[in-house]
Write a structure and sequence with these properties.
12 strands, Zincin-like, 39% helix, YgjP-like_metallopeptidase, alpha/beta, binds zinc ion, YgjP-like metallopeptidase domain-containing protein
């Protein structure tokens, strides 16, 4: 013990101790683990990465309690954001194979599933547009490829735009064909009434078959229609 200012002070308190900062650590809010990194930033920055993991950068001066309190305040936002990101992700290839046009193909390691689907739909679309524009007598002014979560396609008759979901590439080709025919038919009849189905049946008679395929999981469709030897490596 040493004497300082008339009081007895433990010796270890007199030595200047370096403050130990963890440059990075994990914090948990609810069931979500967030990787926290100290940086030369002024504010807390919380974000969800495209793989659904969460990261946060915090100022150097902030302590864990403040970081934890911030996370807890943003718990619901975080939960919702992670759910949104994961929902948008194409089906994860658990065995390196992904459904493509109704078959299972090996995903090249340098390609993401959505890139593959985008490329495939982009390649298949021009021929289908030609066929079904001629068949329906309708013309779209723009075709957009989208990674939609809830719809296979959409059209805006006022602008003549049609959007196509790239995930159609996971299903047998007839499904993309059906959606192209379906959306173009909307230029004749905007609602799904009997007139619409009559016009659609004239150019695409297999609507029921395509629709029932689209209700199923594409991996199951591909598995059911193919033996293991049908699993083909994809040539890029
Ligand atoms: Zn429709």
């Amino acid at each position: 013990m040493q004497r300082g200012n008339g009081r007895l002070t433990p010796k270890y308190l007199l030595r200047e101790r370096p403050v130990k900062w963890d440059p990075s650590y994990d914090l948990t809010t609810g069931t979500i683990t967030v990787h926290v990194t100290r940086k030369a930033v002024k504010n807390f920055n919380l974000r969800v990465r495209s793989d659904g993991t969460a990261v946060m950068s915090i100022p150097w001066q902030t302590n864990r309690q403040k970081a934890q309190a911030f996370l807890d305040r943003h718990h619901y936002w975080l939960k919702r954001s992670i759910a949104q990101v994961l929902e948008k992700q194409p089906e994860a290839p658990d065995d390196g194979f992904v459904p493509l046009w109704g078959r299972l193909v090996e995903l090249p390691c340098d390609l993401a599933v959505d890139e593959l689907y985008h490329r495939e739909v982009a390649q298949a679309l021009p021929a289908l547009i030609k066929t079904y524009e001629e068949a329906t007598g309708q013309h779209a002014t723009a075709w957009r490829l989208r990674d939609l979560t809830s719809r296979w396609g959409s059209c805006t008759p006022s602008t003549g735009h049609i959007s196509i979901n790239i995930r159609l590439a996971a299903y047998p080709p007839t499904c993309l064909e059906y959606v192209v025919a379906h959306e173009l038919t909307h230029f004749i009849e905007p609602s799904h009434n009997s007139r619409f189905h009559l016009h659609l049946a004239l150019v695409f008679p297999e609507e029921k078959k395509a629709r029932s395929l689209l209700k199923r999981n594409p991996r199951e469709v591909a598995d059911a229609g193919a033996s293991p030897v049908d699993r083909i490596p994809l040539i890029v």
